[in-house]
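// run 5 | inverse folding | seed 20
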């Protein structure tokens, strides 16, 4: 039976991030994809100026109520960037009322990087996102986000023992399976660590010097698509990493695409893998 996934995050009309990548990537994996935009922006906020922004928080409860009235259910709910504590509370309510009996909660915290919170977020938001992660079946934090949840010391250089300690600390706040992204033990490579049933597996791949806005959204969306097609958590993490790497490889020589990766150019490779 075809699976139905709901993804809840903002939509940047231009910018190759959030819903503008989640919807096509998960759909391409053969999964019916429903969306709930938390906000609408003319472009994303990374490098653009003068962008428009409309908060859709007030619409979220009414949308959920309509779904409940129509008996609409989802096999998984995947959340990305959420703009406020109120939206996190709405998401918890939506998960409670619209997931199927064995529905999967997948949370990409999307709140911090490089040791700092994104603009507009504070400690109250961190604690609210921590509650959402505590309710999840999968969480996909980067190292900064994991440190903020746990109080673990943030480091730019670290070893395997540090990563194991960080994952152990995460395990004390959530029973979710953990996909820790952006784990680099050297300058040439990066990767992901997957913790499932107490077992840690690391997948290493090429690291690109240039970073792009939205690659985390591309990665998380590909992970969701692969997992909902029946792949294991680790295999889904590998498929998503390889796909994201290919997207970056296809973009690195095109200076006009500074605002995001060419995820469309590699979609065929993702479909073949899933």
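// decoded
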């Amino acid at each position: 039976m075809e699976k139905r996934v709901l993804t809840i995050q903002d939509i940047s009309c231009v910018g190759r991030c959030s819903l503008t990548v989640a919807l096509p990537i998960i759909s391409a994996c053969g999964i019916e994809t429903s969306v709930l935009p938390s906000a609408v922006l003319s472009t994303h906020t990374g490098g653009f100026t003068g962008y428009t922004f409309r908060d859709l928080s007030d619409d979220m409860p009414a949308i959920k109520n309509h779904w409940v009235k129509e008996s609409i259910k989802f096999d998984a709910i995947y959340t990305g960037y959420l703009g406020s504590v109120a939206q996190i509370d709405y998401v918890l309510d939506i998960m409670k009322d619209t997931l199927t009996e064995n529905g999967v909660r997948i949370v990409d915290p999307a709140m911090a990087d490089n040791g700092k919170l994104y603009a507009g977020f504070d400690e109250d938001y961190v604690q609210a996102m921590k509650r959402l992660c505590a309710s999840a079946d999968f969480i996909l934090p980067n190292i900064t986000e994991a440190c903020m949840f746990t109080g673990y010391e943030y480091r730019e250089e670290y070893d395997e023992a540090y990563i194991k300690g960080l994952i152990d600390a995460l395990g004390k706040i959530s029973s979710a399976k953990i996909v820790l992204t952006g784990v680099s033990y050297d300058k040439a490579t990066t990767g992901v660590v997957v913790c499932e049933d107490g077992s840690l597996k690391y997948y290493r791949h090429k690291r690109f010097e240039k970073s792009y806005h939205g690659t985390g959204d591309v990665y998380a969306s590909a992970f969701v698509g692969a997992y909902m097609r029946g792949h294991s958590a680790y295999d889904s993490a590998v498929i998503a990493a390889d796909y994201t790497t290919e997207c970056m490889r296809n973009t690195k020589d095109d200076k006009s695409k500074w605002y995001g990766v060419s995820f469309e150019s590699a979609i065929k490779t993702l479909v073949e893998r899933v």
